[in-house]
Design brief:
The complex is a heterodimer of chains A (228) and B (309). Helix content of chain A is 28%, strand content 19%. With 228 residues, chain A is an alpha/beta fold. Chain A folds into 2 domains: 117 residues, 3-Layer(aba) Sandwich (Rossmann fold), CATH 3.40.50.2300; 71 residues, no CATH class. Chain A has a 4-stranded parallel sheet, with helices on both faces. Chain B is an alpha/beta fold and 309 residues long. Chain B has a single domain, classed as TIM Barrel, CATH 3.20.20. Classes of the chains: A alpha/beta (228), B alpha/beta (309). Chains A and B meet through α7 of A and α5 and α6 of B.
Chain lengths: 228, 309
């Protein structure tokens, strides 16, 4: 799923300066799972904004809406209709959702309420981890199901580097992390050992073709078999 | 003697004599005089002088420029390159440029993470890792081809080195990773700063058992302690270093004005211990911002004068 966090209230208020009728639009899939932009968070943000505007002496009409997937156009019909009476839309979706909604509302500004962060998993309650960078050329079959591109701080393909200590990545020495960041290559090493595949680590991994990832310009998937 | 680059360092190592390299870091500004001043202390002490490449991810003047300054001073440079800040286009370009100006020794590194440095907001690159850079330089030199397969017009004659850290996790994999670097193209290895002698000795035993010391020259990395504070800092904050408490106790046990001397004494002992280990081909002395003390350390360790080859 896509993981994001909500922007500070002050930044959001600043973006909405000068608008008196605002529609908040949540997304009930990924960003609901990471407790940042689902129906519940829309209600919370709406309440917080109402109070903040009131304290600032402004009368602002704030409406709420949420869809199952803001990144899929079919889900947007309802919110587009509701947005027509608003002066601005504040989307609590990921960046893809914000843009999909904006594409449907050529005359109404759409603002992002979240900072979109990464493709990740819910590791524990209240802890989300980045574990895929969408590099376009998946190596998980070679690395014991643990992604070095994403989970190694240096994206090494021939790790581990000289930095890990007590099972932890060297970046823990530069900055405080709680919980601490493990060395992904140590995890790969242990996993491959358990699988009896340590010999994999003896081979030199050749330079990766990053053009399949974000180095190749905006990416797209075109499936002729799926085209109308 | 078959030589790949014909550098002084390569000749000394291949002649079977114990080699010495020292480290000299460029300053955080364009002050070439300061760099020349530090390097001058190392002139007759080292077979080649390592020039660091934005070490600890802190901006300094570039390694390639500093290497040319050393050559003008009659000092053989050993250029360090990290893969953190440049993609394969820039890395290969720098290798070719370095060879074109006459640099013959190259150390291929990944580099400390950029969150350690003075620009933690920077975008790090990591297009290649150190093993891939080794492989890339070896192919350019031996096969005349870039990573893309493009022919190079003039092969870079480089004596290629890598780093090894016997003190990082997992210990059993450390020698295997060094073997991987040797397989990729490393002709010599400079280790991380050694303080845990037992662990280094075990590492060397494993390297000997795997036949790696036959294929590659392993130079033991030594960094003298200037103060108790420095020892504590290295123990706590420098990635991949183990500092046994006994050294800190020793430094604390002498009067304050004798701590530096004690640090030097420890470094000399460590050099001698390393040189006694089978398979250690030389010493890499990293006297950080203490270049002026390198000559006396090397002299006391019996490594001066340097041989002429």
């Amino acid at each position: 799923m896509i993981v994001g966090t909500r922007k500070p209230l002050a930044e959001i208020q600043d973006m909405l300066k000068g608008f008196d009728r605002i529609l908040l639009s949540g997304c009930d899939t990924c960003v609901a799972e990471c407790v940042a932009g689902g129906r519940k968070e829309v209600a919370e943000l709406a309440a917080a904004l109402r109070m903040a505007f009131q304290m600032a002496g402004r009368e602002v009409d704030i409406r709420e809406n949420s869809v199952d997937r803001q990144c899929i156009h079919e889900f947007l019909l309802d919110v587009v209709e509701q947005a027509e009476s608003a002066q601005a839309v504040l989307s609590l979706a990921c960046g893809a959702g914000v843009q999909a909604l904006a594409a449907h509302l050529p005359e109404i500004p759409v603002f992002p309420a979240l900072n979109t962060l990464f493709i990740g998993e819910t590791a524990e309650r209240g802890l989300w981890l980045e574990n895929c960078r969408g590099c376009g050329d998946c190596l998980l079959g070679l690395t014991g199901g643990i992604c070095p591109v994403t989970r190694c701080a240096k994206s090494l393909l021939n790790g581990p580097c000289g930095g890990p200590k007590n099972g932890l990545c060297e970046i823990n020495l530069a900055r405080e992390f709680n919980p601490e960041v493990p060395c992904a290559w140590l995890q790969i090493y242990e996993r491959l050992m358990a699988l009896g595949q340590l010999d994999r680590l003896m081979q030199v991994a050749r330079p990766k073709d990053w053009s399949q990832g974000d180095a190749g310009g905006p990416r797209r998937v075109l499936r002729p078999d799926q085209r109308p | 003697m078959t030589l790949t680059a014909g550098s002084n360092l390569e000749k000394i190592l291949k002649s079977g004599q114990k080699a010495v390299t020292c480290e000299c870091g460029p300053p955080r500004g364009a002050d070439a005089e300061h760099f020349r001043h530090k390097a001058a202390f190392l002139k007759d002490c080292a077979d080649a002088v390592n020039v660091t490449d934005n070490q600890t991810a802190v901006v300094r003047f570039c390694s390639l420029a500093a290497c040319t300054i050393l050559m003008d001073m009659g000092i053989e440079p050993l250029m360090q390159m990290v893969t953190r800040d440049m993609n394969r286009i820039a890395l290969q370009s720098n290798v070719l440029g370095a060879a074109a100006v006459g640099i013959k020794n190259l150390l291929c590194l990944t580099g400390d993470h950029n969150s350690f440095g003075d620009h933690p907001q920077s975008k790090n690159v990591h297009d290649l890792d150190s093993v891939q850079l080794l492989d890339c330089v070896r192919r350019m030199r031996d096969e005349g081809k870039m990573i893309s397969g493009t022919e190079v017009d003039g092969r870079p004659a480089m004596f290629i080195g890598a780093a090894a850290n016997p003190f990082a996790d997992p210990f059993e994999f450390r020698v295997v990773r060094m073997a991987k670097k040797i397989q990729a193209g490393a002709q010599f290895i400079q280790t991380q700063c050694i303080y845990d002698m037992d662990r280094f000795s075990k590492f060397m035993e494993m390297a000997n058992d795997m036949g790696l010391t036959e294929k590659c020259f392993i130079m033991a990395g030594i960094t003298p302690f200037k103060s108790v504070g420095m020892a504590n800092y290295m123990k706590k904050f420098v990635p991949g270093i183990i500092v046994p408490d006994e050294y800190i106790t020793r430094l604390k046990g002498v009067p304050k004005d004798k701590v530096a001397e004690e640090g030097i004494k420890i470094a000399v002992e460590q050099i001698q211990q390393c040189l006694e280990m089978k398979g250690v081909a030389g010493i890499h002395l990293m006297a950080i911002e203490w270049e002026e003390r390198a000559p006396e350390i090397l002299k006391a360790a019996g490594l001066l004068p340097r041989p002429k080859v």
